[in-house]
Amino acid sequence: MNTKTLALPAAALLALAGCGTAAQPTPAASGPHDGHAMPMASAASTSGTAFNAQDVMFAQMMIPHHEQAVEMSDIMLAKPGLDGRVSALAQKIKGAQAPEIATLKGWLGAWNQPGAMPGDAGHGMDGMLSGEDLGKLRAADGRQASRLFLSQMIAHHEGAVAMAQTERAGGSHRDAVAMASSIVDSQSAEIESMKSLLNTL
Asked: If DSSP states are collapsed to H, E and C, what string results for 102-119?
């Protein structure tokens, strides 16, 4: 599998540095929505909702990462005769990550930050599949497709866990850090489940 390592160009890092680490006004609450900016609240009156450059990077990177996981799951769910355990896993991944994409987009809108990193920076993340990798998944069927999906998704999840650990260590926004912790816990557990399932196929 041709996964890519986390290697952000200097331009992307400079752009993120421009976000600053000082407290910024953010929404008093967060949750899935349509991506429009939510009412802004005073950072001084909403302790724990200030954001920094790490929070912005986390959201900008996790959106395309999650979107690809949903795409991979859709590819599998469209295949006939799919192993029920693999089908259930794909449904679970799609059900968990699609709402998080909406939440992440909403935060960026509320923070008045770009919805994506400069250029192709977001596609250099750990665990991301290339177009060739996705093509192989689309072309595969039966047991081969299930095994390929599990192998690819294990690497994909490992990349997400690494990004979430970085956010958990350096983020300021309370809800973003909480999402990162949830990703670490849930996707780490799914990695172990996928490894066990892969051994049975």
From this structure: HHHHHHHHHCCCCCCCCC
Tokens of 155: 């690497």
Intra-chain end-to-end CA distance of the chain, in Å: 18
Phi, psi of 193 (to 5 degrees): -65, -40
- State the Cα–Cα distance between residues 138 and 117, nearest whole angstrom: 27
Q: Taking the mean position of all CA atoms in its chain, how far away is CA 185?
A: 14
pTM of the model: 0.75
| Topology annotation, domain 50-109+129-201 | Ferritin (1.20.1260)
Is residue 177 packed enough to be buried (19+ CB in 10 Å), middle (13-18) or exposed (0-12)? buried
Q: Produce one character per residue of 100-124: b if its CB has 16 or more CB atoms within 10 Å, e if not.
A: bbebbbbbbbbbebeebbbeebbeb
- 26 has which bridge partners? 41
At 162-198, the pLDDT tens digits run: 999 999 999 999 999 999 999 999 999 999 999 999 9
Q: What is the DSSP string of 10-48?
A: HHHHHHHHTT-SS---B-S------SPPPPPB-GGGSTT
Helices and strands of the chain, counted as H and E runs = 6, 0
What is the per-residue pLDDT across 14-54, written as a single tens digit (0 to 9) for each?
344 344 333 343 333 333 333 333 333 333 334 467 999 99
